[in-house]
Each structure stands twice: as C-alpha cells, then as structure tokens.
User: What shape does this take?
Amino acid sequence: MKIGIMGGTFDPIHNGHVMLGEYARNLFSLDEIWFMPNGNPPHKMNVKIQSQTKHRVEMVRRAIADKDGFVLQLYEVECKDVNYSYLTMQHFKEVYPECEFYFIIGADSLFALENWVHPEKLVKTCVILAAYRDDKNTDEMMTQISYLNQKYDADIRLLKTPNVDISSTEIRHRLKNGLSVRDMIPESVYQYIQEHHLFVDDLEEMKQKVQKSQKESRFMHTLGVVETAMQLAKQYHVDERKAEIAALLHDCAKGFGGQEQLRFCQKYGLTITEAEERNPFLLHAKLGAYLAKADYGIDDEEILDAIRWHTTGRPEMTKIDKIIYIADYIEPNRNQAPNLDEIRRLARVDLDECLYTILKATLAYLETKQDVIDPMTEQTYLYYKKLLNK
Assistant: This one.
C-alpha cells in the first residue's frame, strides 16, 4: 500500500488540511492518507497549544469521517516522548514493512528541513511530498529539492495545491473576535468547537480582566447580561459567541467615573454630544466600544456596535444590538424597573416589541426624574413607535 502521512497539531484542523490530503491522494495514487495529530512536537514545545489533545483528535476524527481512504493515526499522541519525525517514520517502516510512505510537508518546511533532527534518517524511510501553492516560486522550490535530493540521496517531489489561504492561527483569532469561520473548517468541526467552547482561553482572560476593573455588584450585573444575552442569541439565531463577548464588555468602561470618561473620550478623539457633556456617565457605552477594540482586541464591528448602542439604542438596530440592549435591562439581578415580568416575557416573544416597551419606560422614568435624555434615545423610541404602529 501507498500511504500518505499528514502530521500537524491540527489546532483546529481546517479545510486546507483536508484539501491537501485529497490532492496528495489523487495526484500520487495513494491508497490512504493518515492524519496524525502531534502529541509533543519539538518545534512547538514553547508554544501554548490552545485546545487539549483529546479535542484536537476528535476534531480530526470528525473532519475526515466521510472521506474514503482517510485514516486517523494516533501514534504520536499516544507516544509520551517528544515526537521527532524520523523516529515516527522509522517506527512505521518497522511495523508496516510492506507499505510505501509519502511524508507530506509544506513549502516552509522544505526550506527548514536541514534544521530538523536527523533529516538524513527521515528521507531513508519515505518519499517527501513538498506542497506548494500558486503563489510560491516554483523555480526556487525545485532548486531546493534538487539540492536536498543530492545532499541526502532523498526522493522529494512537488505537490501542487490550490491557493487556499487558511491557517489555524487565523481561525483561532477569528473565533476570539466572534468572526465567522464556517467557510474555513468542516461543519462537523465547527459544531464540535461550539459544543465544547473551544479556543476560549482568551475569553476567560477577558473575563478576569473585566472582573478586576469592576466592583463586585457591577460584575455580577455583567455576568447576568452575559447569561441573558446568550439565551436570547440562541433563541433568535444570533451568533452566541458574539453575544457573549458584547455582553461581557458592554460595561467595560463603567469602572471609570463620569469625569474620567469625559477626559478619556476627549483624549481619544471621540465625539461628545451636549447631553453627554452634561451627564458624562452616558459616555460609558461609547467609551466601552473604544476600549473593547483598543484594550481587549475586538475588531468585529457588530460586537462593537452592540456595545456602543446598548444604552441609547439607535434606529434600525441589528439583532445583536437589540439583544444586548434588552439583556442589560432584564438580566436576573435587575429588580427595580416596573413591569419587569411583562418585559421579560416580551423578550422571549418579540424583540422589537420588547425594545419599544423598554424605551418607553426609560423615557417616562427620565422625564419624572427631570434627568438628561440623550436625543438618540428619543430618536430610537420614535423609530420603533412608528415601525410598530403605536
């Protein structure tokens, strides 16, 4: 049998990995492709692997489950020692002497091969397939292959693949920021990530940072908003991770006093309305959106807008805007506002109706207190009043 070996951390496995396996199998008439998650790769000993080994293995299992000839190979994850490629391939040659092995590497690895541990031993166990994309210099790669073949008496061949610009690092970054990755990974892998809340180490760090910046009562409110927002997001088919991040950070500027918020907004060049200047506490949503991007690394505009408008609202709010606005009002720790039971019921029935009811109650309360009313709140109220024919 002709066996292709696809090694990697697969953290997570993505469509580029699967496509590379398919191209290798078809172009070199391989009988099987073994997807082999690393256990203790030497080149990543000082790098934090984001998900646990069991999750990486299961994601690979799911990604290749419906692919004929694709096999999950657990040798390296079950090996307690550091995984050197030459030792792994020597093991396979000893256990499967009747097989011909094709070891698949990327273009970058081709130029780093001399720095691997005992490359001269590795090339004696297998044919090496060096994958390259259309954006790589073919002549440069052929020169390197010719050099390595001559130096090590190796059999290294080019494996041309489509120019698919996907990386596990980018996927983790997008997940952190609540951005979609559904076109980058198999659907089964996406569902597994969602089910097990993978790649949320940064979210946990974010939560700890928020907790340090808020009083205990404010942080309890924040957690209540997170819980409520995620429930509403699930019900109304909004990305739950985006809702979670927006809810967690919606009051991230509340740790500053009103005058501090005013000074920060002036410092950062944020527009300040007359109403906000008269009552600087109105600035916490606007400043919070700025801090979410600058201090917490969030660059998803849907999340930032949901934070920015969670106090005043705005006409034509998105679903996530509405969810954060409403969750802020009805979260379980809130108990002062009138008609909360009815408003909580409306939240489960009709977001627009619930939003309008909250806006109406908010304006009535501010008028009785003769407090500052932000013009945007009035505009939002009038927009939804007209929308709902009230």
In short: Strands lie at 2-8, 32-37, 70-72, 100-105, 127-132, 156-160. Residues 202-387 form a domain with the Hypothetical protein af1432 fold (CATH 1.10.3210.10). The first strand starts at residue 2 and ends at 8. Residues 72 and 235 are 36 Å apart (CA to CA).
